[in-house]
Design a protein that fits this description.
Elements: E1 5-9, H1 15-25, E2 28-29, E3 39-43, E4 48-52, E5 57-59, H2 67-74, H3 81-85, E6 96-99, H4 106-113, E7 117-122, H5 125-137, H6 142-151, E8 152-156, H7 159-165, E9 174-177, H8 188-201, H9 207-217, E10 221-227, E11 240-243, E12 247-253
Parallel strand pairs: 1-2, 1-3, 6-7, 6-9, 7-8, 9-10
Antiparallel strand pairs: 3-4, 4-5, 10-12, 11-12
Length: 258
């Protein structure tokens, strides 16, 4: 049966790597001009990108330039909502975090830039390929090297299973969840990213179970990112909610929940 995603490459010097990646992911390897597949994971001279052939758009991950770099410089530091949601406070060490729904690692990168040790969990091998490519390209940047030494790790896994199997010593302070939901933001860049990911991944259908596993694993709190106005995930009532202009962070403080 024909798959929805194929591996492609631009430049013959990428052919061997493309063939190896196709074998690893069990996908077809085709010419970049072959638009018979809904999506293509394309190796270019600059980066690996995921292209939506129907929408004529593409996404890639970049930790050094573009939107993530801008967010790092101008995102508001410890005063921004995500920082308050994870419990960053003056005079206290940044928490160790597991981002159990890492996706394109946007929020994980922000948390790492705030000084947190971050472990990213992502179950899609295609999304993991995009993030791993960005990590590889950024490896010679001095600031990014500091983040890696601090702790910025990517693991391809089912997050619920991973959390349930953690031993006591490996439990994180905070578990961060950003389940897939219908995107309503107006930003063209964010909308493009979300549209492509939704086509690739669909909607998360195990969010309730993942929240339960996170609450049983986190030492201090679980933070769930939701669109402003969205319903709370089925389960215990959040201890509090912290809102930004378009986003709400439902915070479950473990101690307060008994």
């Amino acid at each position: 049966m024909k798959k929805n995603v194929a591996i492609s490459f631009i430049g013959n010097h990428h052919q061997d790597k493309a063939l190896s990646l196709a074998q690893q992911l069990d996908l077809d390897c085709v010419s970049a001009s072959d638009t018979g597949y809904p999506m293509q994971l394309i190796l270019t001279d600059k980066f690996i990108e995921l292209r939506d052939n129907h929408a004529h758009s593409a996404i890639h991950v970049d930790f050094i330039a573009g939107a993530l770099s801008h967010r790092k410089q101008y995102g508001g530091g410890r005063g921004q909502a995500i920082a308050r949601a994870i419990g960053l406070k003056p005079g206290t060490a940044p928490p160790a975090i597991i981002d159990a729904t890492a996706g394109l690692a946007k929020d994980a990168f922000v948390l790492a830039c705030l000084g947190c040790q971050v472990t990213m969990l992502e179950r899609s091998p295609i999304v993991v390929t995009l993030v791993a490519d960005a990590i590889e390209r950024a490896k010679d940047d001095a600031d990014f090297q500091n983040l890696r030494e601090q702790g910025f790790k990517l693991i391809q896994t089912n997050a619920r299973d991973y959390l349930q199997q953690l031993d006591e010593a490996s439990r994180p302070d905070v578990i961060y969840l950003d389940p897939m939901y219908p995107e309503k933001k107006k930003s063209a860049l964010v909308k493009k990213n979300m549209q492509i990911l939704q086509k690739l991944l669909g909607q998360d259908d195990d969010t309730d179970e993942l929240l339960s596993a996170a609450l049983n694993c986190a030492r201090k709190r679980v933070v769930v990112k939701r669109p402003k106005g969205a319903i709370v995930i089925t389960g215990p009532k959040p201890t509090m909610a912290i809102e930004s202009k378009k986003t709400r962070y439902d915070v479950y403080v473990i101690k307060a929940m008994g």
